[in-house]
Amino acid sequence: ATALDLHTGLAPAAPRGSEHWLTAVSLHDGTPRRIPAAAVYPLSAANAHREFEPSAAGAAAGWTTEEVREQGLCSALAHRGLLAALRGTAPALRLDRDWLDGDDEVAFLLGSLRHLDRTARVYALPGAAPAAAVLAVVDPAEGEAATAPDWAVGSALAVRDAVRDAVREAVGRAVVRHYDHQPADSGDPLLADADPRALPEGEGRCDWSYDQPAPALADALARLDEAGTLALFTDTTTIDLTAVRGMVTGTVSLGTK
Fold first, then answer.
1. Which architecture, in CATH terms, is 93-198?
2. Which Pfam families match (predicted)?
3. For the residues of 187-205, what is the DSSP string, one character each?
4. Radius of gyration over alpha carbons of the chain, in Å?
5. How many CB atoms within 10 Å of residue 195?
6. Is the pTM value of this prediction over 0.90?
7. Cβ distance 204 to 145 under 8 Å?
């Protein structure tokens, strides 16, 4: 348990019984592993003693197990990338507006902020590799410096998908704040209490291309394996969804080998 990314360093309040463990499988070779329920459900009562960071990192839902595994892996890597950026160990790299405008959807979303008198900053999070993770921050309007920025993180194996995801979500939250005069409900946090205003900007340039091929999931897992990272998948699909063959849910947990 202590090797998992979300582990806080706190010990469990009492020795774990069998009911406090779940079965996960290695995404690298399918080997079954035991994992604490608190690590799979860190926002639930199972993690009441905060042995693991209360984060939605790695949780995903989709129509197939393969889709959920890919989304969960990218989410877990995005958490790793955001944390590394805030710590300065893998600084965020700002993406140029001219480059961002190379995608029509992203250009439209960023341009729509003019009507709100707001602007956005968009960053690549290199610490999330081999996934592409992006932080989009919509700054407050002039004269509203006390207002917190609206921000979101997007992640995917494809660069274009990650950029679109982050910008779409951040702009959407800014629109809600503008018209409802209150922050949008951003759901469960990727990184609790994160504040992009504390983000140190890196001095390098990002060499991404919208058209660069996305790595296959197997290739991304191989790169993680070579770097000493273990990716575990726990199927969290509820009985009712399983019975009707509805959506699949699951959590990907990262740790050191």
1. 2-Layer Sandwich (3.30)
2. YcaO
3. -S-SSTT--GGGPPBPSS-
4. 19
5. 11
6. yes
7. no
